[in-house]
Fold each of these.
Amino acid sequence: MTDESFPRIDTERALEALLFAAAGPMSAADLARRLPEGADVGKALAALRARYADRGVTLEVVADKWQFRTAVDLGYLMVEEREEPRKLSKAALETLAIIAYHQPVTRAEIETIRGVGLSRGTLDVLHEMNLIRLRGRRRTPGRPVTYGTTEHFLETFSLPSLHDLPGAADMRAAGLLDLNVPADFVIPDPAGARPSEDPIDTDEMDQVEFAQDFFESAENGDR
Amino acid sequence: MTDESFPRIDTERALEALLFAAAGPMSAADLARRLPEGADVGKALAALRARYADRGVTLEVVADKWQFRTAVDLGYLMVEEREEPRKLSKAALETLAIIAYHQPVTRAEIETIRGVGLSRGTLDVLHEMNLIRLRGRRRTPGRPVTYGTTEHFLETFSLPSLHDLPGAADMRAAGLLDLNVPADFVIPDPAGARPSEDPIDTDEMDQVEFAQDFFESAENGDR
Amino acid sequence: MVTRGGDNVRLENEVRQHRLDFSSDAVPDTEIEADDALVLDLDGYEGPLHVLLVLARQQKVDLLKISITRLAEQYLGFIQQARKLRFSLAADYLVMASWLAYLKSRLLLPVPERKPTDEPEPEELAAALAFRLKKLEAIRKAVEAITSRPQLKRDVFARGDPEARVILPSSRLDVSLFDLMGAYVTQRQREIARHYDPSMRVEAYPLEDARDHLRDVLPELKEWTALDEIAPRPVGEGGPKRASYVASTLSASLELTKEGLMQVQQLGTFETLYMRQRPPLVEGR
C-alpha cells in the first residue's frame, strides 16, 4: 500500500471487468483512461497476468494490447466455438510471411524473394482477411507502395508485437532479411522482368493511390 | 481427491475456458457434455463461483444456466462514450441554421424557407441534442409554437451570444454568398427585436407535443 | 501472367493425374527421394526457385554449402523428365534451366587466364543463388513458425461481452460555424432561385447592337485594348446591366474575329481579354 488513491485490488477488479467486456484487445493507455486517477494500471495488469497464468483463461499481450483468451492447451475443448480459418494457399502464406518479416516491403521485392510473379488474387486475399495493409511508399524511383501487416495479423497469430515474430532475430543476424541484392546479381528473374505485362497493374495503382490518400483512416479501420 | 478420472483443477480450468468463450449462458448439462467423462461439473462450478465471488468478473446462475458477467458494482465502468463526434444530417443542419437566424420561428416558416416539408425526426434530433428549444407561441391565428436555439447551441459553436452569429458581410467574405443575390437580401439579426410572443407554460407542453404529432403525421401523408 | 497461371494449373493437373495413375497419394510436400525427383508435388511450388529449393534440400547440407553443379544437374534432370512426360512447363522454368546450364559450364571450365571484366565470377553467382535459396527457405520456415502459433478462433478464443457495455453517443458535434453559415446561405439562395419570376424580363444589350458598335470602334483599335474599355457603359436607369454589355461585346468580338477583322488574346485563364483590329498581313500593301 503506497499513496495510491485507487487501491490495487479495486484496480485489478476494474481491469478484469473492462477486459472481459471489451470487444477487442485494449492498450494500457485505453484502460488507464477508463479508470479513476491514481490507479497503477501497469502493476495491476502484471498482477492479473500472474493470477491467471495457470487458469483456463489467461491474460495475453497481443499487438501491444491486453486481452483475455482461453488457454492454449484447452483449445481441444472448443470444438463448437472453433471457426475453421480460411485456408490460405502456400503462395499466400509465403507472401504473408515475407510481408511480416521484411516489412515494409514492395511488391517487386516480394516477387524477387519468391522468384515468381505474384498472382492476381494473392494480395487481395490477404487484404480481404485484414492481415496486411499498405504502409506507405518507398523513397526510390517510381515510389513503389510498401506493404506491412495489420494489428489483426498480430491478434490472429497471438503475437505481442512484431518484435516477437518467431526466429526474426536469427534471420536478421544471418542477413536473410536483407533486401539489398548485390548489384551483379543476374539470376534470371521472370517476376521482375515483366511487370508491365500485368494488365491489372494500372487498375491496381489507382486503388493504391486511393488507399494511400486515406491512409490514416485505412489504418484506423484495422481495428 | 476421490475417484475422479478428470482432476478437479482441470475441470475448473476447462469450465472457465468454455464459459468464457461461450456465446451465451450454459447449463451444467451443456458443460458436462463438453468435458471428458468423469468430470464433476457441479463441484467445479461451485468452486469457480466461490473463486470469482469478489472478482471483477463473477460467475452467475440465471435460470439454471451459468455465465460470467462483469461485477454489478463495476457497472459504472461499462458506460462508455462513443469517441466519434456525431454528425448532423444535412436536413438537420439546414433546419438548425434557419432556426438560429430566424428565431423565434415557426415550423411553417422553416418550411417556407427550406421549400420542403420538415421530416418528422429532424426537430426531434435537434431537441434531443439540446440544440433547439420551444420559445413561445406566436400571437397570430392558430398561435403556432416558435423555436429558438439553446445555450448549448452557443457552446457548441463557441458563440458568446446570438449577436455573434456571422451576418451577411461575413458570409460574403467567406465566399458563401453568390454575387447575384438581390440587393434586398437580408439576413435577420437573431438577437434583434421580434414579434412578441406568449410564453409556453409547462402543462401546455403536452398539448404541444400532441398537436405536433398530429400535424406531423398529416404532413407525412402529403409526401 | 495468364498463360503462366494456365500452365501451372495444367502442370498441377498432370501431376495429379500422374499420381492417380500410380496411386501414390502420399507424396510428401517437401522431402523428395533423390531418384524420384519427378514426382514433385508442384502444388504451391509456383516457380523454378521453389523447385530448386526442393531439389537443393535433397543434398541434405546447409544450403550455403550445396553443390551448385549438382543442383544444376538435378534441375536439368527435372526439366528433362517433365518434358518427356510432356508437361508443358512455363517459360520461367526453361529460362532457369538454360541459366543453370550456363552457370554449370562456367563452373566446370578451367579459369581463363584473362578474365572477361564484364562478367561476374561463376562462384559469386553460385553463392548468390545459394543465398537466395537460403532466404526462400527461411521464409518457408517462418511460415511454419507463424502458423504453428496459437491462432485466434482456432486454438485460443476471446470473447467480448458487448452486452455489458453501454455505449453513449458522443455529446460532441462534428460541425463548425462555417457549416452552419453554409447551410443557411444555401437555403436562402435556393429560396431566391425559387422565387425567380420569368415574367420579369432581364434587359439585355442586343448582339446586333454590340456588333455594330464594335464595327464602329474597330478602326480605332490599332493597339491591344481591354474588353472592359471597349464595351459600352450602361446609360440611365432600367437599361441592360454592365455585365450584359460586356457579354454581348465579347460575343460580337468573337464573330468579328472569325470573320478575320480583329484579333483577341488572353494571357491566361481569368486574365483580361485584349482585342485589336487585325493588322494587314503585309505591311504597307
Amino acid sequence: MAPIVSLDQALAEVVHDGDSVALEGFTHLIPFAAAHELIRQRRRDLTLIRLTPDLVCDQLIGAGCVRKLVFSWGGNPGVGSLHRFRDAVEHGHPHPLEIDEHSHAGMANRYVAGASGLPFGVLRGYSGTDLVGHTDTIRPITCPFTGERLTAVAALRPDVAVVHAQRADRAGNVQLWGILGVQKEAILASARAVVTVEEIVDELEPRPGAIVIPAWVVTCVAEVPGGARPSYAHGYYDRDNEGYRAWDAISRERAAFAAWLEDEVFGRDGAAA
Amino acid sequence: MAPIVSLDQALAEVVHDGDSVALEGFTHLIPFAAAHELIRQRRRDLTLIRLTPDLVCDQLIGAGCVRKLVFSWGGNPGVGSLHRFRDAVEHGHPHPLEIDEHSHAGMANRYVAGASGLPFGVLRGYSGTDLVGHTDTIRPITCPFTGERLTAVAALRPDVAVVHAQRADRAGNVQLWGILGVQKEAILASARAVVTVEEIVDELEPRPGAIVIPAWVVTCVAEVPGGARPSYAHGYYDRDNEGYRAWDAISRERAAFAAWLEDEVFGRDGAAA
Amino acid sequence: MTTERAVLPEDVTADDMMTVAAARMLTDGTACFVGIGLPSMAANLARRTHAPNLVLIYESGTIGAKPAVLPLSIGDGELAETADTVVSVPEVFNYWLQPGRIDVGFLGAAQIDRHANINTTIIGGDYAHPRVRLPGAGGAPEIAASCGEVVVIVRQSLRAFVERVEFVTSVGFGDGPGDRERLGLRGRGPVKVITDLGVLEPDPETCELILTHVHPGVDPDRARAATGWQLRVAADLHVTSPPTAPELRALRLLVPAKGS
Amino acid sequence: MTTERAVLPEDVTADDMMTVAAARMLTDGTACFVGIGLPSMAANLARRTHAPNLVLIYESGTIGAKPAVLPLSIGDGELAETADTVVSVPEVFNYWLQPGRIDVGFLGAAQIDRHANINTTIIGGDYAHPRVRLPGAGGAPEIAASCGEVVVIVRQSLRAFVERVEFVTSVGFGDGPGDRERLGLRGRGPVKVITDLGVLEPDPETCELILTHVHPGVDPDRARAATGWQLRVAADLHVTSPPTAPELRALRLLVPAKGS
C-alpha cells in the first residue's frame, strides 16, 4: 500500500524546496542517508524540525539546505558543539538560520498534538524560562476546571516526516524497535512520510518492543541498508561513537567540511545507496 | 520493590470504603477475581471508574458496593443490557447509583491527563451531544493559538487502580500484552495500584507487543491464576463468551443474582483464589 | 421510479439483505472504524467479498484486524492476534480516529432521528430517571464526529426511527444544514442509513433522511409505516440488488443461518 | 568549622572527587532522571557502589537502564537493551517526569547563578546574535521543574558561576524565595550543586547558593575566587570525605584514569 522505491526517487517525489521536514530518530535510527540525499538533490529553504539536531542537521545546515530550524537540543552528544550550526547562528554562514527553540518536552507535545489533530498541546513547562520570550509557539493556558495556569505549545504539522526504521514488508508496513523516540508521532503529524529501512522482508515477524506503522499512513519506503550510520539501528549495527567524535574536527573548519561534503555526499550516489 | 501478597490481603490493605477505584481492562484482562474479593470484603460507597462497565461492574453494583459509576459504555458486549446496572439506575436497587457519563475518547483522555499530572485533557469531542449537559467534567476550551473551540475533560485521579495482567516477576515488575486498553494510564493516574497476575515468574522474558509496568509504580501484586475469567488473558485462556451470554439470565432477576452471589462469590475464598 | 417488485430468495432474511447492503458501502483499501454487532458483521463480510484490503479498526486499539471468526466483543483476542498493530485505547482515539485518518465509521443505533442524530443512552423518562437505560456512548460520538463519513446500520421501526431522538448521544446533522460545521465536526457525517427495509440518505438541501432504496419485495409504504416522521421517498427510488451467490456464501460462513 | 587540610591521594583528580561526591547524593531505591555527561557518570557510579537499586531514567525513554558500559549519548543501544522498559519520548516526559514520580533530577550546566538558575543556551551577545551558541534546553527545564529535587554537577569557575545567568534555560530558584511556587514549579528545585572544589547548597532563607563543603585540600578562598558572586561560606563548613577504595575501584572501571 506504500510503494517501495529508491532513495533518490523517494525524496525527489516527496520533499520539495521550502517544505517543513521532520527528521526524527532520537540518537537511534537517525535518517543520515536520507539527509545526504536531500543535500545531493540541493533542496533549499527547508524548515528542519528535530528534537536533537545533531550531525545530521549540522550537515544539512552547512550544506545550505536549511532556512529555519525548529529544535530543542543542538549538540554533538557527549562530544560538544555542532560547529556548522554554530557558524550559521553566530556568523550567518552559509546564510542566516532562523530558529524556533523549545525543550524536549515541548517538542514532544507539539508532535503529539499534530499527530492527534489538535492545534495545541498542554504541559507543565517553560514557566520562568527565557525560552518563552523568543517564540510565539508557547503561550499560557488556564485549566477550565481548576483555574491552574499551564503552558500550551502549538502543534507541529510538518509537510514531510523522514525517518529510518529496521524493516518494512512489501506492502510498506514499517517495523521499528529499540529506542522509539518520536518517530510515530512525527509520521502521524506530517502530511507525507518517507521511511528508509535496513531491509525489506516478506513477513514482519513480531519482535519484543517493536511498534508497527501501518503502510496506509506512509507515503513511500526505500531500502537503505546502513541508512542510519553513524547513528545506529538496534539489532543491525552499533552507534559509531568514533565517527561522532571525528565529526568535531571535520565540522570545525568550513574548508574541511566542504571537502567532506564533496567526498562523502556529492561523491556518492543516492540510487545506489 | 512491590510486595507479592495474597488477593485478600492486597485488597484489604489498599482499597477502603469510599475510595474511587479504577477497574480497567478493555474486554481483555478484566480483574474479576479482584472485584469478587471487593464484594467479599463488603466494600461500600465506592466510586467505580471504568470505560466499559460490563459484568464486573454489574456484579459490584448488584452487591451494593458502588455509590457512583464513572463510565462510557455500560453493556454486556454482543449480548445486551447490564441488568443490575439498569436496576440501580432505573429503580434505585439495591440503592440509587450516581453516574458521571462520558465517551470512550473522553474517559481515555481523562486517564491520560491523570497519568500526566495535568488537571485536564483536550479533545475534539462531545460537541453537540447531550452528554455535555449532564456532567461538570466536560467544559469548552479555546486554543490560544488558533482561537478554535475544543473540549476539555477533567483529569481522573483515582485513589486506587485495580488491574489484571499476565505476569509479574518477584520484584513486582508487571508484564502485559494483547489488547492494552488503558491499564497503564489507570495505574499511573491512581494514587495506589493493585495488580493481579496469572503467574509470578523469575524472569519477564520479553514478548512481542508486551508492555512492562515497573514495580516502583505498583503498590502490590497478587498471583491469581484465572483472575480475569470470564474475560480472558491473552496467551493463557480465551474469553468465555458462553459465560457472558449466561450472565443475561443470572442478572435479570434479583433473586437469581443473589443466589449467584452466594455461590460464586461469598461461597469462595479470596485467600485461596 | 423503478418499482419492479423483485423478492428475496426464500433463504435470505431481511437482516441478511441489510448486512449485504451495508457491506457493499465499504470500498476496498479504505480504513473503517467498526462498531460491534451489525456493523462488525457487515465490515467483515465486505473484507471477505469485494474489499479484501479493507482496514478494520476497532476501539480496542486493534488496527488492521483480520478476524477469521466474527468477534462477539470489540476486544476479542482474535482481533489482537490478527491485527497489523495493537495500540492503547487513548492512542486509537487520539492518534487514529481524531485526526480524520479513518475513511468510514460504521455505527449501530437504538434510536435515530430525521436528521440522523443517534441515541444510545436512554429511552423514556428523563436522564436521572430513565424508563430504559441503554449502554451509552462508547466510541460513537467521536466516530460520528471525526470519520470521513458515517454509515449507520439499524432495523427500521417506529421505536427506532423518531422525529427527534430523546438524547443526542452522537451527532448526525444536528438540527439541519450547517450544524456540523457550527459544531466543529470535521467529518461529513452519516451518508447512508442501512435498514432491513432499504437505504436512507440525507437530502443535500435539508439534511433530512429520505428513502433512496428499498430492498427487494419491500413496498415504500412499509418503510413509511416504520418511520416516526413523514418519510420522503426519493424521486428515483432504487431497489437494492439481491445478494449474489458469493455474497451469500461468505455471509453464511460468517453467520450460519438460524437453525443451521 | 572543620578545616583540617586533608588532601586527595595522588591518583585522585578533582573531577574524580566531584563524581564521587555527586554519586553519594543518590539514595538506593530512588528514581533518578539522568542527564548525559558528568551526571550519567555519577549516577552509574552510584549504582555500582551504594545504590544498586537506583532506577536510572534517561530522556530517550529508557526506564530502569543498567548500562554495563558508560553511554556516550542518552540514547545508546546499551540503555535500551538493559532497561526495564523503553517508552516513547512523549511518554517519558508526560507520564513519568511531569507528574513528579522521579525523585532526583541530575543536571549539568554551562552557567549557573547565585539562585541556581541554569543557562545552557547562549553566552555573550544577545539571543539573536550570540557570541557562543550552546546546545540549548533538551530535557533540562522540565527536569528542573518536576523532579522531587535536583542535583547539579558543574566545574566551578568564574565563567560558569555568575551573579545572574545570561539566559534562564532551567529555573533553579528564580529571583529567590517563593518564585518556584509562584511559577508553579512543583519539585523542590536544586538541593545540591556539586563542583570540582566542593558542594554548594541553597540557604533556606534566601535560596542563595552557599558553600557547605570543600573537597579535601581545597581552601574556601579558592571556591570564592572561582565564583562570580560574593560566595558565602557555611558556618559549619565540612570537608568532603575522600573517595573510598571501593568507590575508586568502581570509578576506574567506569572511566579509566587518563593515560591508562
